[in-house]
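chain below, 378 aa
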Amino acid sequence: MFNFFKSKKSRPEEEKAVEKEETAKDAALSPQSKEEIPQDAVKTSLPAESEPVTAKSEVIQEETEETRPTSFAGKLRVGLARTRQNLSKQLSGLFGGGKIDEELYEELETILLTADTGVNATTQLLEDLRQQVKKKGLTDAADLKTALKESLVEMLKPLERPLDTTANSPFVIMITGVNGVGKTTSIGKLAKYFQSQGKSVLLAAGDTFRAAAREQLIAWGERNNVTVIAPDTGGDKKNDPAAVIFDAINAAKARGIDIVLADTAGRLTTQMHLMEEIKKVKRVIGKAIPDAPHEVMLVLDANTGQNAVTQVKAFDEALDVTGLILTKLDGTAKGGVVAAICGQYPQNPPALRFIGVGEGLDDLRPFNANDFVNALFD
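prediction:
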């Protein structure tokens, strides 16, 4: 940034060290160096005619307009680009033409497995394709692409069950999952989603183990103008997550709040003592409201592939999971994990309530099987 202030040195071996020194000095002396970074400083402190800042803001605006679709269907398509490209490269050759034979089915099986579709789901899809081929009399491999899309939609439809929060007030949603899947961020986005439906929301900071969890949830509360019930901090005081959520539910009842989103600490499914602890949290919630929690929502990271299926099984056994959130679909080339979940639960899979395809507040939306499958294919 400040290269135009640097003087040329005759000895190349000293050049980097000198540049670092001068850059540090320039940063300390230049009035622009610290004013260009925060956006609020740009708005309030810098004059409108400041050319460097104006140029920077224009670049940001152009990037936003060009790269961010306005509809969620467009965002979903962009978010699933890696998975779509991965599938397209392999399926284009396979479905380009030719006869339908066992060799084609074997190649398709390999493609589906590498997309993290899972053994059970892949077997179901291939069986359904074989039935369609016989029923419709298909002979050309090019016809299989449409048949595959139809089979996928039919498989994923049972996951498409929107969350109805009108039956109870407050409607208590317990959020759980392993470490690092994006629980707290998902809570912030859920709060925004429910607010857009005209619902009042209260957040419970039940993750009392991760150091930054409380502050992160409070920041989301401020961003959405939502009340956060959080534990006291300071000293060596240890807060009981169940007690924090219990207090939050009572506060919601007293204030007439519609939705309570209860955060919980991330935990590995192999840590049995922590799995027992989260069972206790659920029992305590039931003491605040007899039939609560009304939704046990498990957050999954799409990047974990088949591990996500294992997590569903473990948390379902411990908590009777009723809904799923699948995050970070925009960061993986293996979006087939959605089908893998169906394959694990062929009769009654937990509902996939929401999917996340970006960092924006509105990039977490209800799952739609047709939209999802259409975004997977060119």
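Residues 12-29 form the longest helix (18 residues). The mean pLDDT is 79.
thats it, cya
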